[in-house]
Amino acid sequence: MNMNLLLSLCVGLGLSASCGFRVFLPMLAANVAAMSGWISPGEQFAWLSTWPAFFALLSATIAEIGGYYIPFVDNLLDTIATPAAVIAGTLLTTSVIEINNPVLHWGLGLMLGGGTAGIVQAGTGLLRLLSSKTTAGFGNPVVSTAENVASFSLSGLAIFLPFLAIVLVVLLVIWLLKRLMSLKKL
């Protein structure tokens, strides 16, 4: 495996995991990074480095973040965010990995990027459900703030320190899988 492929996988997986916390914020971060020349999306994803994408992603990010501070709307958003996070994670990973084989390219994007985003989203959805159940929704803004910070921070790490981001993603996924498995036993 060459270093460019490894680096692009780390960037993609870091951004994908961030999609599990917020769907649009990592896409906005990738857009800003692409427009600034910090990352290079593939030819098929040239739209990611355009001003129209910036304004669309900025609007979606603001709406998504705001929606998570409205009681019960946040739980509804989690229902929608689960498939959206998988799609966004797939797109972000696929946009940055450098593989010429389209089947392998999209397969890795879906399995690694979409899978990582889906696992993180499942964990955050369960956390919000638990918060709603135990605090009647009053604790959810705290959860939302933590998710916003996690998504923003992990997106930044994925772009600027991708190897550190991948270590954190692996630890997060292992921790979430253990939590999800322990809930299954109950």
Automatic annotation (TrEMBL):
InterPro entries: DUF4126. The chain crosses the membrane at residues 50-69, 76-97, 157-177. It comes from the Bacteria. Pfam families: DUF4126. Keywords: Membrane, Transmembrane, Transmembrane helix. The keyword Cell membrane does not apply. The keyword Lipoprotein does not apply. Residues 9-177 form the DUF4126 domain. This is DUF4126 domain-containing protein. It comes from Dyadobacter sediminis.
